[in-house]
Amino acid sequence: MPLTLSRAVSAAGDSTDVLAAANLPVLWICAAGVFAVIIVQSVIYMKAARKAAPAAGITSAEIGISFRSGAVAAIGPSLAVVMVAIALLAVFGTPAVLVRIGLIGSAAYETGAASIAAGTAGAELGGPSYTQNIFAIAFFAMSMGGAMWMLATLLLTPLMKRGGTKLAKVNPVAMAIVPGAALLGAFMALGIAEVPKSMVHVYALATSAAVMGLCAFVGRNPKHTWLREWGLGFAIVAGLVVAFMAHTAAAPAA
Amino acid sequence: MSVSTSVSATGTAAGSEQQLAEFDRTTSRWGRATMLAGLAISMAGPLYLIFFTGLDISAGQLWTAFAAVAAVFAIIWIVEPVTYFPILGPAAMYQAFMIGNISSKLLPSALVAQNRIGAQPGTRRGDFAAVAAICGAAAIHLLSLTVFVGILGTWLISMIPPQIIDVARLYILPSVMGAVIVQSILTIKQPRITLIAVAMAVLVQFVLLPLAPGIAFLTTGIAVIATIAVSWLARDRKAATAAAAK
After folding, report:
1. Selected residues 87-116 of chain B with any CB under 8 Å from a CB in chain A
2. Residue A202: inside a domain
3. Does residue B206 share a domain with residue B151?
4. Rounded to an integer, what distance in angstroms lies between the CA atom of residue B51 and that of residue A109?
5. Which residues constitute the domain of residue A145?
6. Is B224 part of a structural domain of the chain?
7. In this structure, which of A152, A163, B151, B210 has its CB flanked by the most CB atoms within 10 Å?
8. Is residue A196 part of a domain?
9. Is residue B170 part of a domain?
């Protein structure tokens, strides 16, 4: 019997006011908690690195330089992630976006997982059937996915440390095929599943793909490498803008 | 540090060993502990939503959703840690898989730092530079997420009229997937597998699904398994044996 602590959620969770549920204070606290854990981890690691620096043949000053150059190098990619995250706020609310898109996961995996999870409940992510219940199921599935990633890291890292990288050498031919095939199969299927929904979905899909392709192409020029990391953000926004125009042109009242 | 110079050389070497062993102990113990904490807190959010807010969700729905996601991504969960371990080293593994955006942000940061101080990747010096660089990248990342997404983004969303939010929400999935497809084609660079993936996705969506509408939620998983199976059967055996002979 669920204990109801909040009025932001409708009686049976079939309200489509997803953001009311997605921005509950407890979820903000959990997001802040993940931030805090990463800060604590960084502080422990920096202390440990400084302490053992001479033994590793690196000076304390060089540790500082490394920290600063890592920070500066991350500015561009971080802001690129920010752009993607803001575009997804309307679907997942701020706390879930901060943890899932900003940190642990990535836009590709998390929206993929959320869409698959919504599908198992007979709903469409972001569509008219996207209720508070569906959001909770999607958020649960995304978080479990991230948890599995961390679990695999926790179990495999000590194993690989002991046995070197034997695991990757088991079958180099399989390692060359399976990961690529799994990723391409997943995203191709998720993309093509959008095609039958409506012509506007097709426009959004095609625009996003075209902008990404363009950014990657222009980004080959060493002068414009920044376009490669910003491609995803630009592509999502362009897809949304085109979809918005097509949608309002089709139904001006909406 | 030591009393005599002759002892000093061996003494420092042993001291170094000990210091490095202590670094490994600290980072693996605390790395694991913090990652477990991160895992627990990241699950606490959705579990709170499910159990304490009066939503009407059954355990069956949750497990079905998780199983469908696992069918698609389980292989990646295993493959990614295995792929990044040789580059990151054991200490940074516990950072990287919690901070995320490994290939687009953390690896470049680590490389820039190693380059800056002239450290080789894979050496102790390189590992330490990478750990410090990832800490720096994490600091910037948390800061920009807090300011631009947490504060500004939330404000922005509250300013935008709800009708526009609804339309954005409706078309966010195709707007993400179009770019992600192109990105994965360009990163994986395997035209043969790309074509097989397109064929399998089209077959599943437009042939299999109309025949058996009940499998709707399994389609992505089926497409993944079919793509792997066909890519394996249709692999370029000549190139593979040539590579193995090398």
Report:
1. 90-91, 93-95, 97-101, 104-106, 108-110, 112-114, 116
2. no
3. no
4. 25
5. 18-165
6. yes
7. A152
8. no
9. no
Q: What is the DSSP letter of A220?
A: T
Expressed as residue numbers, the domain containing B98 is 90-159
A145–B73 CB contact, under 8 Å: yes
Shortest CA gap A178–chain B (Å): 6
Cβ neighbour number for residue A252 with a 10 Å cutoff: 7
From B113, B143, B159, give the residue that closes a domain: B159
Interface probe, candidates A39, A42, A200, A242, chain B, greatest B C-beta count within 10 A: A42
Per-residue pLDDT of chain B (246 residues; tens, 9 = 90+): 333 344 444 456 777 888 888 998 999 999 999 999 999 999 999 999 999 888 888 899 999 999 999 988 898 888 888 878 877 788 888 998 888 878 777 888 888 898 889 888 778 888 899 999 999 999 999 999 999 999 999 998 888 888 888 888 889 889 989 998 998 898 888 999 999 999 999 999 999 988 988 777 788 889 999 999 999 998 887 765 555 554
Q: Within an 8 Å CB–CB cutoff, is residue B144 touching chain A? A: yes
Shortest distance, CA A202 to any CA of chain B (angstroms): 7
| Residue B173 placed within a domain | no
Query: Where among B142, B159, B176 does a domain terminate?
Result: B159
Residue B176 falls inside a structural domain: no
Decide: helix, strand or coil at residue A122. coil
Q: Do residues B81 and B97 lie in contact, with contact meaning Cβ atoms separated by under 8 Å?
A: yes
DSSP per-residue codes, B181-243: HHHHHHHH--HHHHHHHHHHHHHIIIIIHHH-GGGGGGHHHHHHHHHHHHHHHT--HHHHHHH
ipTM of the predicted assembly exceeds 0.90:
no
The token pair at B135 is: 């800490």
Please tell me the total count of domains within chain A: 1
Q: Do A172 and B244 touch (CB under 8 A)?
A: yes
